[in-house]
Amino acid sequence: MLTVAVLISGTGSNLRALLDAAADPGFPARVVVVGADREADGFAHAEHFGVPTVLVPFREFETREQWGAELRAQIDVWTPDLVVLSGLMRLLPADLVDAWAPALINTHPAYLPEFPGAHGVRDALAAGVTETGASVIIVDSGVDSGPILAQERVPVLPGDTEHSLHERIKPVERRLLIEVVRAVATGEIDLARASSDAVASDPSSS
């Protein structure tokens, strides 16, 4: 059984979808802890499913590195096999990424490498594209630049706003996240291999 830690900052809609999936006895993963960098509404989902929560407020630390060290200490107590960033609106310090990767994944509301960063939906609309998407990646030291594990296109419709487009992307993100977690649990996705293959295929790594 794959054990999963989920890190959130807000409402935790992806977290809820994963918890719902994991409630099925046939699902090969379970969420063992939910952490946040601030008081998060998504903690209510964890509490509903009886999952422990960890709060490590970013503002209580002088540096990102100190915050990251405490977050790592709090999460590593649960020895998760996989850490999922689910709407965590905080960049992890590099040493924490190095400690958890490649068993550290994130969702993004764009078809990477298109429109990385915090405003992927807004940027897609501003670019006037006819389609964007959703992606699940391994987190690395860059901005949404890690190896892609799954992605799917989502059309941009006439009259779309940032809100309406994002609302159509979210269900795709949730489904892809659940599929990836399942595939990691069953061995269909080997995170270490996916990470090393990405490095080997990157010309800048040679």
UniProtKB/TrEMBL annotation:
Residues where (6R)-10-formyltetrahydrofolate binds: R64, M89, R90, L91, L92, N106
Substrates-to-products reaction catalysed: N(1)-(5-phospho-beta-D-ribosyl)glycinamide + (6R)-10-formyltetrahydrofolate = N(2)-formyl-N(1)-(5-phospho-beta-D-ribosyl)glycinamide + (6S)-5,6,7,8-tetrahydrofolate + H(+)
Record-given protein name: Phosphoribosylglycinamide formyltransferase
EC supergroup of this enzyme: transferase
Family in the record: Belongs to the GART family.
Higher taxonomy: Bacteria, Bacillati, Actinomycetota, Actinomycetes, Micrococcales
EC number: 2.1.2.2
KW Transferase (keyword) present: yes
Top-level taxon of origin: Bacteria
Every Formyl transferase N-terminal domain range: 4-181
Species in which this protein is naturally found: Microbacterium dextranolyticum
Keywords annotated in UniProt: Purine biosynthesis, Transferase
Pfam families the UniProt entry points to: Formyl_trans_N
Gene Ontology cellular-component annotations: cytosol
